[in-house]
Each structure stands twice: as structure tokens, then as C-alpha cells.
């Protein structure tokens, strides 16, 4: 543990992934946001993973979401399949429906050994964006016979979106920009809550993962600590390590759009899940990304004569569309519906 004056935000470190107390920054303590931004920048330049404490999220919210996930996945298969994802990734994704073909650190040919349920911003049928057919906007597919499920998952969704927006200025400062520089790209952020149940895999099979090595494609991801281990992070040197498993904290990782904003200074880190237990493992990652119509380009602080821009401007909606077609079988041209 380290509590030195020179590094007031760090609570502890296991290997390469720091545990940071963000309460002073969220409370507006003088200099706290800048100090936190510096710590975030250092971690993002290394593993791209950190653990956040002092976030102020009521523990009942992630606990309620985990409980809701367990209840959903315990439903009969036919009830879950009635909510199967369609043209949009909303609803139930059964085991075998996702193969990570975009991995740069493993040749993946087998589907992930998990089943998922996707939840996005909740809208009414007469919402203007629904009526306009706005891309990646749709109605959530709520199970009809699961009382409290919608309320528990949306309470968690709402709290996590609020936390992400509060931390956006700090991550922007970590990029070397003024706190409000990216605000215009996050007026209507693309947020997804994914409930996941990983099947037991006590004896790992070559090339088969609970979740194959991948990078997240949004901006940053928040992962409430699961009851069982399984998440592994790949270091720049090619070693795999596990984040500190501290109850009540959130594991946060950089994703592809933050990597593009940073001109690869904060390159996203591959990670994977292997559930080497005899029990079902649950996860509730919350993905925070820019507006669908945001155009992502490296920020000025990360572009110099020595490090010229590596990326052309990219509309986030176009990136999401391409990725979904690549990794999900139900989006393949040969798939029906």
C-alpha cells in the first residue's frame, strides 16, 4: 500500500494495475482532478486498466444488477430466445453467437463460452429518435415475467452513465486537454449494459474462452467486481495478469475510441475471460462511448511533428456498424432476419 504525499490518489497496487481513490476528485478537492488525471494517464500508457474506489455508487445497485442477471439467465431457454437480438444488439445473445474475429493477439475460431443480454438507453415507443429510425436506437427487450428486472438494471445503467460523465473531464485532462474539450462528442453518449453468464470451464480447452482476447471498442468500460475470478489483462510484454479483486470497486479499462483520441498514446489493452471454476460466473460490464454521430480524431495534445496523426476522422456510428457485422453471427449477410 502507498499513502505517500506525492501520490495521494493511489490506494494500492498489485503488479501493474493501480487502485485509485477518486472521491477527492469527485468532491472537487483542489488539485485532486489533476492528480487523478496524471495517475490515469500513467496507467493508460501502461496496462490501460485501473481500479476505482471512492466512486460513490450505492453498493445495492451493482448487487441488484447481478441478482437481476442471475434471475434472467435462469429462465427457460425458450423464454430467453423469445428476446433474441435482431437487427440491433438489444436483448438475448445465446451461447455460440459471437466469435471474436478481430483479435490481434489470438487466432479465434470458436465462439465465446457465454450468453449475454444487452440493454441500451430506455426509450418510449414514441421517442423522436425511435420514430426517426436513428441508427443504433431501439426499444429494449424486457422479459415479461421477471418483476423488478427492468427497474434493477436501469437503476444501475443510470448510475453508471452519470459516473462516466463525471469522469469524462478527468480522462480528457489525462489526454492533456482542457476538461471540457470532449464534451461535445458526449452529449448523447452511446451506452450499453451487457449482462453476461459464463459457463464453467474448469479444464481450459485450447482456443476456447469465456470471452476470447479482444479490445473494447467504445471509450471506457466499467466492470463491477465479479464474485468469481476470470478476467485477465495482457501486458505490453505479452504476459497475462488479473486486476486486483477488491469488493465494491470498479475495474475500468481504456477502449478503442480513447485510443484513437490519444493517437495510440492510450492504446487499448487486450483482455480475456476464462472461467476456470465449477460455477456459473456473472459479469455486468457497462460500456461508455461517444455519440453515434461523433467524429473521432486524435486530440491536438497527442499530435506532434514527432508523432503525426495515425488516424483519419471516423464517425462512431460507421465503426460500430462494421464491427457488429464482423463479430456477430446474426449480423452476417447469410444470416436470416
Question: Could you explain the architecture of this structure?
Answer:
This protein has 337 residues and is of the alpha+beta class. The chain has one domain: B-lactam Antibiotic, Isopenicillin N Synthase, Chain (Jelly Rolls, Sandwich), CATH 2.60.120.330. The protein is built from 8 helices and 16 strands. Strands 1, 2, 3, 4, 5, 6, 8, 11, 13 and 14 form a 10-stranded mixed sheet that branches. Residues 1-14 and 330-337 have low confidence and may be disordered.
Q: Figure out the total of helices.
A: 8
What share of residues are in beta strands?
A: 15-25%
pLDDT < 50 runs, ≥5 residues: 1-14, 330-337
Number of domains as seen in the coordinates: 1
What is the terminal separation in angstroms?
A: 54 Å
- Tell me the overall shape: globular
Give helix % range: 25-40%
Number of strands: 16
How is the biggest beta sheet arranged? 10 strands, mixed
User: CATH class, anyone?
Assistant: Mainly Beta
Q: Provide the CATH topology.
A: Jelly Rolls
Q: What is the CATH-assigned architecture?
A: Sandwich
Which value, in Å, is the CA radius of gyration? 19 Å
Q: How would you classify the helix and strand content by structural class?
A: alpha+beta
